Task: structure prediction
Amino acid sequence: MSLDNFRPSFIYYQLRATPKPVPYEGNDLSGKTALITGGNAGLGFECGRQLLRLKLSYLIITSRSLSRAEAARKLLLADKTTQRVNPNAKVDVYELDQERHEYISAFVEKLKESTAYLDIALLNAAINTPKIEKSPYGRERTIQINHVSTSLMSLLLLPLLEACPRKPANLTVVAGGTNTWTTLPAKHHPKMIHWMGDPASKGFDVYANYHNSKLLNLFWVQALAERVSGADVVVNAVCPAMADTNLFREYPRWLMGFAKLIYFRWITWSAEACARVLTSGVVKGRDGHGSLTTGIGVTLPFNPLLFNDEGKGIRERLWNETIEIFQKEAGFKVDVPAKL
Ligand SMILES: NC(=O)c1ccc[n+]([C@@H]2O[C@H](COP(=O)([O-])OP(=O)(O)OC[C@H]3O[C@@H](n4cnc5c(N)ncnc54)[C@H](OP(=O)(O)O)[C@@H]3O)[C@@H](O)[C@H]2O)c1
Result:
């Protein structure tokens, strides 16, 4: 782990401002259906609670464990504010493991059996691990689950979003402020995902792969927004800063104990505040198409690669390499939108 993996300026940005709650005025979600992947815990759970308080009619959350998802469902429906303002809210739970392409495809097919459309899809599920472990495809797991699987999910959900009777629907990807913590060393390699996914690559750093994956989420959203009409589906990404959630569960206990004592206690935002960033993304309308944002009242920096010519080239190569992976590895057809 190099010092490159930590930017002290992050502390400054978190101390300077906290995201403001998304107001109910102008954001009444009555009658709408939303999916949150990884909605049983952390920021996804808190965002689900906020959407229900904005009168969302039907919320679908996922977890790798149905019992964890069911426990979250009960907690969401027991929320006093939701009971008062949205007493008929419905919450369903689904099992989803983003480890394999066919699990994602099976999940989407099952989802289609219970809903004909989605107003909102929040792609939030992700991991952050210090362990070098490989996915079934031989690729390091962070890159697999956070980038490859999230991207696949975005393409497979497009038909459900495009079928939404209210236009535009909203697809929000949860990236993260740490997209600035990487210079993307893989960018000169002709196969970037392959490079980041292979622990044998010279300079491979598993800690950096989380930050890399969050930058890839942002590139993917920019590329997808160029291929989907914002009049039909608003594609955007949100970047929360840090919050104390289960995301760091695989890090050494002594390190997390220290972080909890000082960093998480005094500096970071609460999970509830962090989730406001997610909520601000899912309520975005047509103007938010292709946007990368950090919540209401907050300005966090973004990786400069996202806005310069070098980054444009990286984005296209990343899109092509990711699509190639689906074509080679997925045993089912993935519809790929063309550039508009
Ligand atoms: N916390 C932060 O400081 C922070 C900062 C910036 C961005 N973010 C981003 O915010 C999002 C939510 O993170 P969080 O902090 O809320 O973390 P979290 O508490 O660990 O929640 C992650 C969610 O993803 C699910 N998940 C984990 N592995 C999965 C897999 N292989 N397949 C499908 N689902 C899986 C988890 O559910 P199960 O374990 O029950 O399956 C859980 O619901 C992530 O995209 C993260 O990168 C977090």
User: Anything to note?
Assistant: Residues 38, 40-44, 63-65, 68, 96-99, 124-127, 145, 174, 176-177, 240, 242-243, 245-247 surround NAP (CB under 6 Å).
